[in-house]
Amino acid sequence: MAEESVPEGRSLKELSEEELWELINDNRHRISLGVRPCILLPYLRQVKVLTEVDEDEILSCHNLTNRCMRTSYMLDLLRTQGRNGAVALLEGLMIHYPVLYTHVTGRKPSTEPSRFSGLIKYSELTEYLIRAVTGMQTELQEARNEAGKMSTRCSSLESEVSQLMEQEEKCSHLQTENERLQRHLSSLQREVTKLKDEKCDLYIRYTTSIEEKSAINGRLHDLNLQVSFCLKISLHELSTEKGSASPYLFMILSCLVSLTCQAHKDILQQDLAEAIDSQVELAEHLKSYREENEKLLRDKQGVCVCLSFAIITNEEKHANSA
């Protein structure tokens, strides 16, 4: 561990140049990963171990493509400054990276003047420390502000996620309702088709019944005419043969002719009444089927409107979510 590399009872000031750089090189990887050159460069320039040209080269060289490479190059430049470079680096870590300083040296950081090497005057050191503390406080405040913004942003995102989940749930309900309306619409369409088929069957049956009834009435009319004709002939023969025919038989034949005519008239009246009743019944059936058909069409239109509204609402929800 780093703490074991510093003999107890000896301060960093008592260590030789080689011992200091051995301490740094043993932790070079950790320093390269944890240090930002832009933080340490102001102090390193203050103690005059690096120049402005060195700073520009560290921060602007195109060959140094990442922070670790820039930090490693800064360590190489400090190595050319010998012991002062090592001491300045460790003092910079003590000021700006106290945790890393403890890992490297095994000692707790301190801002007491006695802990510094005297590379710069006390007044200059005090002024730098004040600026460093002020900068740290500013960075801390900025970090807190940024944390506050991030917290607000997180709350906003959580609210948006909650709204999106609610919209997703509503969309799921709308989708379920849409599927139910689709099934209901299909059922109504099948019902309409069934009613149309029943209506066609009813028309066919009615037409067949009319034709059968017309044929029966025609046949009955022909038979009535034949019977009436036969009776009239018989009555005529009897009337010409009164002397030989029985008056009672003549009266019977007259009654038969009269009854036949009356029966023919009654049959015609009955046929007319049945035809009227059939027309009335058919009209009632047609009216009932028409009303039921209109009701189904209204239900179908209502389902289509609800379905269209659900689809439009679903699309609007997805558009707002996007």
TrEMBL record:
<dbReference type="GO" id="GO:0005737">
    <property type="term" value="C:cytoplasm"/>
</dbReference>
<dbReference type="Pfam" id="PF00619">
    <property type="entry name" value="CARD"/>
</dbReference>
<dbReference type="GO" id="GO:0042981">
    <property type="term" value="P:regulation of apoptotic process"/>
</dbReference>
<dbReference type="GO" id="GO:0050700">
    <property type="term" value="F:CARD domain binding"/>
</dbReference>
<keyword id="KW-0597">Phosphoprotein</keyword>
<dbReference type="InterPro" id="IPR011029">
    <property type="entry name" value="DEATH-like_dom_sf"/>
</dbReference>
<protein>
    <submittedName>
        <fullName>Caspase recruitment domain family, member 14</fullName>
    </submittedName>
</protein>
<feature type="domain" description="CARD">
    <location>
        <begin position="16"/>
        <end position="108"/>
    </location>
</feature>
<dbReference type="InterPro" id="IPR001315">
    <property type="entry name" value="CARD"/>
</dbReference>
<keyword id="KW-0175">Coiled coil</keyword>
<feature type="coiled-coil region">
    <location>
        <begin position="140"/>
        <end position="198"/>
    </location>
</feature>
